[in-house]
Design goal:
Layout: H1 4-24, H2 37-53, H3 62-65, H4 75-85, H5 91-100, H6 135-150, H7 156-171, E1 174-181, E2 184-189, E3 197-202, E4 212-217, H8 218-230, H9 246-255, H10 259-267, H11 277-284, H12 292-302, H13 304-317, H14 319-324, H15 331-334, H16 338-347, H17 361-370, H18 377-384, H19 391-401, H20 411-420, H21 423-432, H22 442-451, H23 456-468
Antiparallel strand pairs: 1-2, 2-3, 3-4
Helix pairs in contact: 1-2, 2-5, 2-8, 6-7, 9-10, 12-13, 16-17, 17-19, 18-19, 19-21, 20-21, 21-23, 22-23
Length: 475
Amino acid sequence: MENFASQYLRKRMKKEKAFDQEKKLFETSSHKYELTPQYAEYLRELVKKASAFDPYCKVFGSSKHKYQLNPVISLEEVQAYEQRHKIKLPSEYVFFITQVGNGGAGPYYGIYPLDTTKECYEIAGTPFISSKLTAQQWKEKWEPFEQKCNEESEDEDDLDNLYDRTEKETQQGTYAVGTQGCTYETLAIAQGEEENQIFYVNSSWHSEYMPYNTEMSFLEWYENFFLEIIQGNNVDGYGYEIIASQEELIARFNQSDDIKRKSKLLNSFVRFPKISKNTRKFLHQLSNELFADEKLFLLLKFDTEQGMKLFYQLTKENPSAAIRQVNAVPEQERGKIYDVLLNLLYTIENGDEKCSYYSSLYGRLLYTLKECPQLKSEDILKFLKNKSLNEQDIDVAIYVLGYAPDKEKAVDTFEYFMLNGTEHQIITSLQAVRNMPCPALKETFLTLWNRHRENNNIRNNLKNVFKTNNMEIPK
């Protein structure tokens, strides 16, 4: 007997030809799709179809909106809102909230509704964020605030004013249409030649957190999301990859002379649950020199045997690339690479090089070693003898040391960092021993309690070790 999804898929396939013909009606020169009631109905139907392919809301964020759309709002209400606040909302967003739904189902946690009863914090003006924005321009916009933060000043009002002014200038001419969670917001350009273009921003506003151009208008971005779900593609990183078929991605790759563009096209293959024989052949033929990272990641995902061969090869020829992609090594293979990773940890010359905003090559190795069953404290202690390590890499090493099955052999090291380390190192060392009785450290714990009378973070962690060691909390 067919289950619901099978029945739905069979019916859908019968309608596919008519569905595609209907979709073509919306293609125009000014918009990808004409803003008509028929197109609004098409989008609503698309949401329903995607819901049938994800009945348990396993797609990230879907448990929030549950593939439900809110009732629409009238165009008159929207226009009155715009006039009252002297702003302009993105035209495709206006179409959406007036003909499809005033918020609800959409990428990540869904689309924000327009609440006309609330004040508008939308910033009018020429958009600062655009496809032409350079990394240097972004850095120049936010560096003054970061420099001010690092200065010793008691004038918090001055700092607040600088932040508010910079944020206002950054957001002008845009409108937030949704969130990806935490500090990641989805903005649509509200006016100008790039009106409706979707950008992802990190609203913690760091000079290194450049806005990301999805290269899609609001409605493209919205529609493609549900088409990806229906086609069974991965949408965890939706908007960061180019939406195209495997054949189209290969064709565009071969036509492009831009290395960065080629890299983005390669990274877009991660959307697919499996690849064709032609794509597999294409990946095998990629240059190990120009696209080592991309090739290794994709082979580890789609052809593990060949991916592992390339991994071992790159540990000798291009160790940085091997380390950057080590997270892609399947779990069942990680125990086999412990000694290789350990050797890289001790021998790599550029270990403090960043491989992400949060981690260096050293850090990536350490975090991976933590997941290996062979982890031994002596291996991490040997690494900590490296006198040239920076503070961040020491922090990670202490953290990983706390997960070694034989961490009792590292008690002296934990004690050293408790007494001589930074606040973060003190806390990480305390957390490492919080469930391990350490009678030899009782005096050290009391010393820390008296030394850090005003530090609640350290004292709260000390309370845990007091309990583990049957010690009374000092008054």
